[in-house]
Each structure stands twice: as structure tokens, then as C-alpha cells.
TrEMBL record:
Residues 9-25, 34-52, 417-426 have a biased composition (Basic and acidic residues). Residues 449-458 have a biased composition (Basic residues). This is P-loop containing nucleoside triphosphate hydrolase. Residues 1-68, 409-458 are annotated as: Disordered. The chain crosses the membrane at residues 378-397. Keywords: Membrane, Transmembrane, Transmembrane helix. It comes from Medicago truncatula (Barrel medic).
Length: 474
């Protein structure tokens, strides 16, 4: 990202090189292998000394280790600084590629970059109608100016007036006291930026305010009052807040957070380190950025630096490197330098920042509650089916055993003292060579003799009786 325009690239590079030597002081050359070998020989010889010199040896080794760590740290800072400078050159893309990148933002709909993890579909997530991005930062950080800069990039009317009210003098003005919603672009309902009131000097009050926004949502036109406001300001804000018709019908849930800092203020902290005011400013930055309510699990907010047009390119790189080390975030990927300039580099930085925030917002959409109920119902139904099958199998096995037992009880019993032998051989025609199997202990029961009984002869014809020869019967 250049300073004022992209035509002075060569001049900026020369200026950057000269400022680089002034800003960072590195050793002229790293330790040579001979020096390292000498230090090792010295340590080996010291180890052979008695225990009385052990304290002196420890101090020397600690000093040597500290010097080596310092050199490594300076080299690391140098590499980060050079990487940041290269990132500015990477933003110098042509107008054709910038137009394609802008079209992706303009065609964005909530859930466009939602990852279908765990086999879930987009309909399984609680996707809002509008992705809400919340801007937070200290007084004079440039939140309203950033909204105007973003709106100007995506609106077709380049001569449209500024949408957000900017405080010309933050000391005399009160800044933004009512939450304001700005759709990007104006005629869309996919992206909205929320301008908020600046952070106060009380960290406890800031955490309370941030918690309210992140848990209960934000509402267009909502008054943000503080306990530290004087009576006159509180009265004026109350009179403004009593005007009806300014509130929207519903509040919006925040999907991602953008922390905004003034690059010039951070540079003053770097150059005047140790002062009470600078220490307080750093504490406010760290406590706000690390506020647990602003993070979505491990996903921390994105950081935007403003007023970079008042700084040189080398100073802007110094600020990004300092904040990256202070907050533990990559300065070239999560810190965006967006000055108040009209050039392709600034537009490219804005598009990249919005792409980053929207992708992370889509990745933080929660799952629908009915999805979890659906998974629970599926598991319960599967369990009930398996239980019914198990019960049916057990009943069938029990009935089978009962039928077998009854059949065995009704079967005819063999004669006492005899053994019934069943021929289970297959019915095969022809001779079968049976093996001679000897069973010495097997006794074959003897057959009982048959009893001969006399047969009764039945006459075939009836006997003829002569009744006249038997008169005495009558």
C-alpha cells in the first residue's frame, strides 16, 4: 500500500530504504563460525574449573545467551519488516483484477463462504439475512472515516456525500453516541457495518458495553450512555434519544468484529515508550483486542490501521510489525493498513479486508438448534429399532427352545433294557461295502420268542337245521 499515489513507487522505495536504516539498528555482521567455536572452547574450559567459579561462569553464559537471543530477535523483526514492505507491493494490482475482486464482494450473500464441515449443509446453519460487522476502537481511531472510505469504494456514485458523521476535533466533539447501521453497498442487504461509540478510559465499563453488544445484539439508533458522562451531555443525549421513529424493528447479532486504531497514535507510543499516557493507550489496545466477548472461540478480530496517509511508508510498516508482535497476530494477514487515500492500493486493501472478515463471519455461523435435535432423534430412533430387533430375536429364540422341548417330551420312549438303533444311512441302491467296526462293549438285545396262538376257524356257510326232526323243542 503506497503513501499518496502509485506513481511515486521508486521515490517511496528509496525513502523506505533510508528510513529503514534509521528505524532499525542491527549488528553489522553475525558472529562468525570462528567466534562461535571460540565461545564453545571457552565454555568447555570453564566447565573444568572448580565449583567456586561456577557463579561467574553462569553469569557469562547467561550474558552470551541473551546476546544471541537479541540477535535472533532483531533478525526476526527484520524479516517481518521486509515481509510487510513486500505486502504493499502485492496490493499494486491492475484495475481488471481489482474489479473482479470487488464483484465477489458485491455478489456476496451470507453463507457464501461457509464451510460444510461434518457433513452439514448450509441449511443446517443459522444463517442471518445480513452479515453484521461491528467496528470498535478508542476515541479518534477513525471508525467513521473507515466506513466512508469503504462505502465510497463500493458505491457507483463517486460524488455522493459522506454517509457517517466524522468528528473534526475529537477533543471538543462527543463522537458517535448512537449506534448507526450502514449497508454496503447502499441498495444491498447482505453486509452492514455498525459504527459505535468510542471506548472509554474505564476498562470495566468497556467490557460491560462490549458484552452487551455481543450477547444481546446491536440496534440501529440505540443510545450508548456511560456512567462517566457529565450531566450536560447525559441530558442532551436523553433529549436526542427520546425522538421516536429512529429505531429499527429488530436487533442484529454481531457476526464479526473490526478493531480500528489510529496509526499515528500507535507510532507516538513506539517513539515515546515508557510514558504514562503511552502505557495507558497500550493497555487499552491489548485489553480491548483480547476481550473474550469479541472473539469467536479462537478467531480473534481483524485489526485496521487508519490515518496512514499522515505517515511515511516505513513508519506504517513499523506500526504493523509492532502491533503484530504485541497482539500475537500475523501483521501481513490480519492487520490491514487503510489510509484516507483514493488509489488502487487503498481499494485493494479494503477489498482484502472485507473478504477476510466475511469469510471468518461465515465460518462462525452457529448450527441450528433443530439440527442437534434432529441428530438426537435419529440416534434415538436407531437405538429403538435395535432394541426392538433384539427383543424380537430373544422372543423367537425362547419360542424355538419351547417347541423343541415339547417335541422331545411327546416322542415315544424305547423299551426298557433295549436300545433303539436308527438307520441314518442314505438310501442307495446296490451293495455297500461297510467297514468292520468292532464294538466290544455294545450289547445287542435278544429278540423275544413269538407265542403261537391257535387260529379260530370260521365256517364259510351257515349249518342247515332240520326242525321236523327235533319235535321235543317245540
Amino acid at each position: 500500500m503506497g503513501g499518496g499515489s502509485t506513481d511515486s513507487n521508486h521515490t517511496d522505495t528509496l525513502h523506505e530504504d533510508s528510513c529503514f536504516n534509521e528505524d532499525f539498528h542491527f549488528p553489522s555482521s553475525p558472529p562468525t563460525p570462528r567466534d562461535s567455536r571460540g565461545l564453545q572452547d571457552k565454555d568447555n574450559s570453564v566447565n573444568e574449573k572448580n565449583e567456586l567459579d561456577f557463579g561467574e561462569v553462569s553469569e557469562e553464559s547467561v550474558a552470551t545467551s541473551s546476546a544471541a537471543d537479541s540477535v535472533i530477535g532483531e533478525r526476526k523483526r527484520l524479516g517481518i519488516y521486509q515481509e510487510i514492505l513486500q505486502s504493499y507491493d502485492a496490493l499494486k494490482i491492475d484495475s481488471k483484477n481489482l474489479k473482479e475482486a470487488k464483484e465477489k464482494i458485491l455478489s456476496y450473500r451470507p453463507g457464501t463462504w461457509t464451510e460444510k464441515a461434518k457433513g452439514l449443509k448450509l441449511c443446517d446453519y443459522d444463517v442471518p439475512e445480513t452479515t453484521c460487522l461491528l467496528l470498535v476502537g478508542p476515541s479518534g481511531s477513525g471508525k467513521s472515516s473507515l466506513i466512508n472510505r469503504i462505502s465510497k469504494v463500493f458505491d457507483e456514485d463517486k460524488f455522493a456525500p459522506a454517509r457517517a458523521q466524522v468528528s473534526y476535533n475529537s477533543i471538543r466533539g462527543n463522537g458517535t453516541c448512537f449506534l448507526r447501521e450502514y449497508m454496503i453497498p447502499r441498495d444491498s442487504n447482505s453486509i452492514c457495518l455498525y459504527d459505535t461509540r468510542s471506548l472509554s478510559d474505564d476498562s470495566h465499563e468497556n467490557n460491560k458495553m462490549l458484552k452487551n453488544w455481543m450477547t444481546k445484539g446491536v440496534r440501529h439508533g440505540e443510545l450508548v450512555a456511560r456512567g462517566m458522562d457529565d450531566k450536560r451531555l447525559s441530558k442532551n443525549l436523553k433529549l436526542k434519544g427520546d425522538k421516536k421513529g429512529f429505531f429499527s424493528s429488530k436487533s442484529r447479532k454481531v457476526n464479526y468484529v473490526i478493531c480500528v486504531l489510529n496509526g499515528l497514535s500507535v507510532l507516538n507510543v513506539i517513539e515515546n515508550a515508557g510514558g504514562a499516557l503511552e502505557e495507558w493507550y497500550i493497555q487499552q489496545i491489548v485489553s480491548t483486542f483480547n476481550c473474550p466477548f469479541l472473539s469467536f472461540k479462537d478467531d480473534k478480530p481483524v485489526l485496521v490501521l487508519t490515518h496512514g496517509d499522515l505517515l511515511s511508508l516505513s513508519d506504517r510498516a513499523r506500526v504493523r510489525a509492532y502491533l503484530g508482535e504485541l497482539l500475537g497476530i500475523p501483521p501481513t494477514k490480519q492487520i490491514f493498513d487503510i489510509p484516507d487515500c483514493d488509489d488502487l492500493v487503498t481499494e485493494s486493501a479494503i477489498v482484502g479486508m472485507l473478504r477476510y472478515t466475511l469469510e471468518h463471519a461465515d465460518g462462525n455461523f452457529p448450527q441450528k438448534s433443530n439440527v442437534m435435535n434432529k441428530i438426537h432423534k435419529i440416534s434415538l430412533s436407531l437405538f429403538m429399532i435395535l432394541l426392538i430387533l433384539a427383543i424380537g430375536f430373544a422372543i423367537g429364540l425362547k419360542q424355538n427352545n419351547s417347541v423343541t422341548y415339547v417335541t422331545q417330551q411327546q416322542a415315544p420312549q424305547p423299551h426298557a433294557g433295549s436300545r433303539e438303533v436308527h438307520d441314518t444311512r442314505p438310501n442307495v441302491e446296490g451293495p455297500i461295502n461297510e467297514p468292520n467296526i468292532e464294538c466290544p462293549n455294545l450289547e445287542v438285545p435278544k429278540k423275544e420268542p413269538k407265542i403261537k396262538r391257535p387260529k379260530l376257524k370260521v365256517p364259510k356257510k351257515e349249518a342247515k337245521i332240520e326242525w321236523h326232526k327235533i319235535p321235543h323243542i317245540w
